[in-house]
């Protein structure tokens, strides 16, 4: 019953997302009451699927960069040679998370110009902390007995890292990537303030024209994408952990 309910929710959320992207006019009867002075209820200034695709490109590129650096950093500070850098690395990752993205855009635009560049920098910094901290937690949770067993089998440090530590830390690392992805899907909307293509255009168009229907369309699409992608990444995580034997099938 629980599985049926979850699948039903997924299908409903996916159907609503597809309608909002490709057939928004079907929901006009719900959106018209939110407009004023006969303003259009459906956003048609740009292709919504195109904006959604550009939005996800920003998120995916930034998350890929954050993942590479955060996982590498997490591995480094959990080694004996890098342990002294843990406080500094943690402070940098925390700064990336707590520094307002709008301020990052304001600082990056003079150097990089308008467009996707400043947004990618802001999203990259914003995605570091969850992945970095989860990588550290995942590596620290590996039992010393398991590490001793790996040493006893004659593994060197590289073999132990890739064959034992990272596979056991993988669920927590993926969880960090999931959280960072959801955060960036929402945060990427601010990219439209510096001319980066994305779903923020719809929300900003609504704010400028005082059109609540536009704001609702943009917000719903971003929210549904975040929920569905988080759910899909959870399914991928389950499949991977089952495949490597960390979770029963």
UniProtKB/TrEMBL annotation:
User: A GO biological process this protein is involved in?
Assistant: transmembrane transport
For this chain, the family text in UniProt reads: Belongs to the binding-protein-dependent transport system permease family.
List the transmembrane segments: 54-78, 99-129, 214-233
The UniProt entry lists membrane topology as: Multi-pass membrane protein
Keyword field: Membrane, Transmembrane, Transmembrane helix, Transport
Q: Which PANTHER family match?
A: GLYCINE BETAINE UPTAKE SYSTEM PERMEASE PROTEIN YEHW, GLYCINE BETAINE/L-PROLINE TRANSPORT SYSTEM PERMEASE PROTEIN PROW
Cellular component annotations (GO), alphabetically ordered: plasma membrane
Indicate whether Protein biosynthesis appears among the record's keywords: no
Q: What is this protein called?
A: ABC transporter permease
Locate the coiled-coil region(s) and give their ranges: none
Localization recorded for this chain is: Cell membrane
Q: Which residues form the ABC transmembrane type-1 domain?
A: 52-233
